[in-house]
Amino acid sequence: MRATKFFDRQEGAKGLAERLKKTVALVGMMGSGKTAVGTALARRLGVPFLDSDAAIVEAANMSIAEIFERDGEAFFRARESEVLARLLEGRVGILSTGGGAYLSAANRELIHRKGVALWLKADTELLWNRVKHKSTRPLLRTADPRATLEDLVARREPSYALAELTALAQPEYSIAEMVEVVVDVLKQREDVLASV
Ligand SMILES: Nc1ncnc2c1ncn2[C@@H]1O[C@H](COP(=O)(O)OP(=O)(O)O)[C@@H](O)[C@H]1O
Ligand SMILES: O=C(O)C1=C[C@@H](OP(=O)(O)O)[C@@H](O)[C@H](O)C1
Ligand SMILES: [Mg+2]
Predict the structure, then answer these.
(1) What ipTM was estimated for this complex?
(2) 35 in ligand 1 pocket by Cβ < 6 Å?
(3) Where do the domains of the chain lie, and which CATH numbers do they carry?
(4) Taking Cα atoms as reference points, which of 19, 42, 65, 56 lies closest to residue 192?
(5) Could you say which residues bind substrate here (predicted)?
(6) Ligand 2 centroid vs 12 CA: distance in angstroms?
(7) Annotated binding residue at 33?
(8) Which atom of ligand 2 approaches the CA of 34 most closely?
(9) From atom 15 of ligand 2, which residue's Cα is the shortest distance away?
(10) HSE-up (13 A, CA, CB side) for residue 81
């Protein structure tokens, strides 16, 4: 028993010695865990964490909802593209995008040129359970937000499916477990996550 535990720790220690070679952009629907899993993943790999929404909020000194309300979605999308370009120029890290970012062909092209996209795929039920109590997502401020979410999932999935990598989110996975799922996916690509 003890020997097994010791062995497990050794494997864990080895896991820390992985080196991220390309920025990984997390893409997918609101509530899929891009921000939460991305934060923990960056810490796990010892690399910077970037979030395009947070960068927009910081630059504008307004919340996402306020930006949508005052300046409209088109304005937000323009800022989002600028921020993505800027964040992809920096050090290699984990970049969590906003749920709409990967719908733009120009943004997809940029991400593919500078890094690699990983889709955090989750079904509508899971997404809904994660976002239903939050008022921070202006696109869901409709008469029937659940139907809106379903509609967005249906329309967006073909774009998310263009990501080179996919990790499946399951309701029973904690954030830490989801990080390990993502690490396993990244390890399949030596040019993205190398064991050193
Ligand atoms: N694997 C998970 N287990 C438990 N809660 C999660 C998990 N992933 C995300 N969450 C929670 O779900 C909510 C939405 O996640 P978030 O990271 O903001 O998603 P996104 O950035 O993709 O919109 C947050 O409250 C977050 O803490
Ligand atoms: O799906 C979308 O179009 C959006 C998702 C949000 O980010 P998260 O996916 O991190 O919630 C945020 O960028 C904005 O509310 C628009
Ligand atoms: Mg987010």
Answers:
(1) 0.98
(2) yes
(3) 20-182 (3.40.50.300)
(4) 19
(5) 53, 77, 99, 156
(6) 33
(7) yes
(8) 10
(9) 137
(10) 13
* Residue nearest to ligand 1 atom 12, measured at CA: 130
Place of tokens 């399949």: 188
Out of 130, 152, 183, mutate this one to test ligand 1's pocket (max ligand atoms within 8 Å of CB): namely 130
- What is the whole-number distance in angstroms between the Cα of residue 10 and the centre of ligand 3? 33
* 137 labeled binding residue: yes
Beta strands in the chain (DSSP E): 18-20, 23-27, 49-51, 94-96, 115-121, 165-168, 193-195
What does the pLDDT profile of the chain (196 residues) look like in tens digits? 444 444 443 344 444 579 999 999 999 999 999 999 999 999 999 999 999 999 999 999 999 999 999 999 999 999 999 999 999 998 999 999 999 999 999 999 999 999 999 999 999 999 999 999 988 999 999 999 999 999 999 999 999 999 999 999 999 999 999 999 999 999 999 999 998 8
And the tokens for 174?
């904690």
Q: Residues 196, 18: contact at Cβ < 8 Å?
A: yes
CA distance 58 to 55: 5
Residue tagged 């097994």 (tokens): 4
Q: 16 is written with which tokens?
A: 């820390």
